[in-house]
Amino acid sequence: MKTNLTIKNFRVFNENGVTIELNPITILTGCNSSGKSSIVKAVLLLNDYLTQVKKAFENNDEIELSRYKLDFYKIPFNLLGQFDNVVNDGSACHSITFEYTTYSYMISKDVKVQMKFASEGNDDLNNGYLHALIISSDDGIIYSTDKEKGNLCNLNTIKNACFEYLPIEYLVFNYCGLESKYEFTGGISEQDYEAQKEEMITYLRGCDTKRRADVFKHVRYSDKRSSIAVRCNINPEILENPIENGSLFKIPVIDQLNQIEKGKIKDYVNEHFLKNAAQNVIYGSNKIIDDFIASDCTSFGDYFKQWEISYLSELRPTKFSLFGESPALLDRHIISRINQDYYWINWYEQSGEAYVFSADFDENAKSQKPIIENTKQKDIDSFENRDISFDWLYETVMLWNRVAGNKGIGKYFTFIQNTFEPDEYRHSTMAMISTFAEELVLEVIFPDWCSHIEYASSTRAKVHRIYTLYDNDEFSVMLKRYFDAKRKYLSDGNKMQVQRKDYEIDSFMNRWIKEFEIGESVSIDSVHRLGAQITLHKSSDDKGRMLADEGFGITQFFSILLQIETAILSAEGEKVNNMWALNQLDGYGSDKFHFEKNTIAIEEPEIHLHPKFQSKLADMMVEAYKKYNIHFIVETHSEYLIRKLQVLVAGKDDTSELQVSKDDISILYVNLPKDVAEKGEPQVRRIGIGEDGRLDSPFGSGFYDEADNQAMELLRIKAMGK
């Protein structure tokens, strides 16, 4: 788990909140009751909430974010109490806020996701429910949904990234053809591929290297089955117009009007587009033209783009929850039409010429010659009292375009004529960028650590000779997960996965059992109708002795090994940089297996372990991270574990695979609330590790210096002759 997490109004953390940097190996230390456990529980609660939403999405359920909850009745949250017990006593808004950062491959930027939870009076169980969600980057808000304010999507903040992303994604799918979760295979014939290969490779080499790599990663890691262009049934060549002209809408009549002098445009529109129009249409059109003439814009196209930018900054598509009933994710609806609220238009076409009528046009008159509707004065008054908006401008321009005979121009937009409803225009670029926005929201709302965090408490295992699998205690759940992961790993459907991983079952556990001098190997066997039996073997021909005979400390340590082994077995992934047809690009063609990220949060792993073995815990965690992409959040008081991490950063260990970067480790010292109030200490202080292994700031008093203090006290007593 690599992210910055901000926690506000959660237990000891007040409305000012704390921001913590979570790295692949995160160490939480400090005095008892300082808030270390609160940080771990906050991470687990947020993960549990996002996992609920993710499962619903994977089941194709309709997503309403307030359906899911911070469930304080689940283990291990059940010991926290209800929402009212968990929210900080000083909270004025009586809400809990979580913020996290995640890197988006779709826009190649860090994105911040902010979620605010509150209780609801109709829930007697007093859990927490989402009331607001904000997704933003350094360019501004991308998407927000609020129980009171409704929803907002700012397409301007992602427009350029979308234009860069779509052609690369299209080429990957068109030429590589994603056929499974792990590998790409040919999507076109070999003959067609060879004919177009050089052109494709040349284009991809011309793209920004980082941007290209990010798009490849998103395509591989997100389990996509088709490109956005394929889903929208369009070719990304349509992006040439918005890239060149800055507008998402390719409307021929605008190009036509750009050729007309600004002072003559009013006469031109009235003569060419409004001869047979209803009076309210004429009035509305002229009001727009007068506003354009009064503006600083030199062309009508610039005037349209100015309104378009404003509109895209506050986009509220009809499929969003507009009335504040429930925060919701962007759904899979493609935005195809702007809201038409200003005048209800019916189109009537006769002898190839289009005429415009108001909504109360008599349908029975269709057999008669076209008429000019004398709209009532109240309809014109309603326009006079309205401010111009993009909705109004868009509908008017599309009306002019229709009268000019431009029903649609193929790849750019499609005209859909309705008899009793306003006409629709499906703009391909709007379809593409709105689908891009939907996928982006899903990417950041389900970061790579979502649903991949496990927890090991300080009482994670009991000493039993036979472990029943029917109980729901922590260790029984671990065993069931291990057996399930092992079965899936060995199943016929995963034979190729086994070959790609090139991993021998239980090899990690056996290696570290040997390192901790417990034995040579371990066997975990299902005992029919009873449960599971864990046996440690001193040699290959040793019948072994039960784990229960080794004592409480070894049992606690083994439970951590079991979780790591299970994470290795269950991890999915793919061959890194292995895309068919792209092996000519620099750095592609490797067969190395990529393990998906898994995180284990462990409470006091050093319990009942000798200092020598507390130190070895650091070695074990670093190997699990570097070889199998397993991350750790460790709540600890162990000086030996931290000291060994310093040594590993400094590179003084002879085993190169155990060396780790200082940027992969985050040491967080959590101060007592009284020290925050009385001494002005930060609530959470990050202690950095230098390249030489030295810490850039000291721990709080009583950590490293406690042994020195006691030694000095002994010297003082001896000097006094006592």
Under the CATH scheme, the architecture of one domain is 3-Layer(aba) Sandwich
Question: CATH homologous superfamily of one domain?
Answer: P-loop containing nucleotide triphosphate hydrolases
CATH class of one domain: Alpha Beta
Q: What amount of the residues lies in strands?
A: 15-25%
| Overall pLDDT score | 80
What Rg is obtained from the alpha carbons, in whole angstroms?
A: 32 Å
CATH topology of one domain: Rossmann fold
Number of strands: 23
Low-confidence stretches: 178-186, 318-325, 331-375
Gap from first CA to last CA = 53 Å
Kindly name the structural category.
Answer: alpha+beta
Percentage of helical residues? 25-40%
**Biggest β-sheet strands, sense, barrel:** 8 strands, antiparallel
